[in-house]
Amino acid sequence: MWLKIVIGVLFVSMFLGAFYFESTPERKAETGLERSSGAGTVFRLMSWNIGYGDLESESRAHVEDLPAVAQVILSHDPDAVAIQELTGESQLKLLLAQLKNRYHGFVSSTGSADRVAAVLVKQRGGKEFLPRFAIVPAGDKFAAAATFRWNTKVPELVLISAHADAFSASRRRVFLADLVDWARNAKKREITFIAGDLNFEVSTHKRSNLFTNDAKHDSESYAYLLKHFTDVGRDAGETAVNDRRIDYVFGPLGSASVPRAEVLRGAAIGHMDHWPLLVEIAF
Predict the structure, then answer these.
(1) Does the structure show a pLDDT above 50 at 75?
(2) Distance between terminal CA atoms of the chain?
(3) Using CA atoms, how far apart are residues 84 and 46, in angstroms rounded to an integer?
């Protein structure tokens, strides 16, 4: 009798185990998060400060690095890219040529600065996919924005490429507040991303930092961003040398998920002090 019961239990366990392991891949496929599935629901976004460290004689992007920068972009095939620290439109044109003209591009105004933020959008067929570009005034700086149709099943996307002040937390706070307010004033049906080198680092593991005035400004900037956006790259880790996470992608609140958030640590060229942040957002 007991032998029959034991055999019966083992049989049921084997059956349930087989069902579980056979069903798992099927459930994964049903999520639609895999870019290779052709479902067209995963948006791939890269943010990268391609400048050099402050101790270098020229900390802006170097022309000789642009072919390698283009190769990194082409190999990871993002739908859009936020670039920081180009010297201006001339470098953008060189980068677009190295990208084999597969992307549209736009740079912000320099204002009083000597470097610009840029936004790249992958080219797609049809006039409805042509991006619209804008300069976003924020504090005493400017950001670059692109509004574009990425997928006919998804509302238009807005990408803001931003580079916040590296030396003043109060300036960062004004800059980021202006960016958020500009994004909030966009059409409600658009899905907005803010990406770039925001130059602040807020960590709950470094609580002593919260007692400084700079940390107070940066903490409040981060809190204001989180009120309206999701920190999409939160789990990707440090994005710059000296174990700093100062490059961000903020995306929409709500039902979008993040199947991938990765810092490409082997991609830095020359004396660059940042690595590209690559994220995938599933709608």
Answers:
(1) yes
(2) 55
(3) 11
